[in-house]
Model the fold of this input.
Amino acid sequence: MTFRSAVYAVVRRIPRGEVATYGQVAALLGRARAARAVGGAMGSCPADVPWHRVVNAQGGISRRRRDSGMLTQRIRLEQEGVRLRRGKVWLARFQWEPPRGRRGRS
DNA sequence: GACTTGACTAGAC
DNA sequence: AGTCTAGCCAAGT
Done:
């Protein structure tokens, strides 16, 4: 199980209409400081991974080196009902609150 | 195994 | 509030 596949597993759990931050995903994996690695994993992910539901700590859409997919991300989020405030996701309202005691043990 | 890169962050200025 | 700097982590060379 690579770190990346673990990342995908978590992202797939993000409910439609909600979002999570890179740091949040990292924390759920027990690697609170690996937000950067999470971003790297998102660079290329399976089609069934709702990558658009992952944003940076400020609720903003991080820039890719190339591709302007960040535009697609914003649109997809809005279509799911996630509202933005001044170009940034309204985290206080749409940030995902993952259930605890999951991840295998209780 | 060292070195580089990147969709990150938090803290200084 | 906008920029810069320094940690942090996994992957690919």
Remarks:
- The two ends of chain A are 21 Å apart (CA to CA).
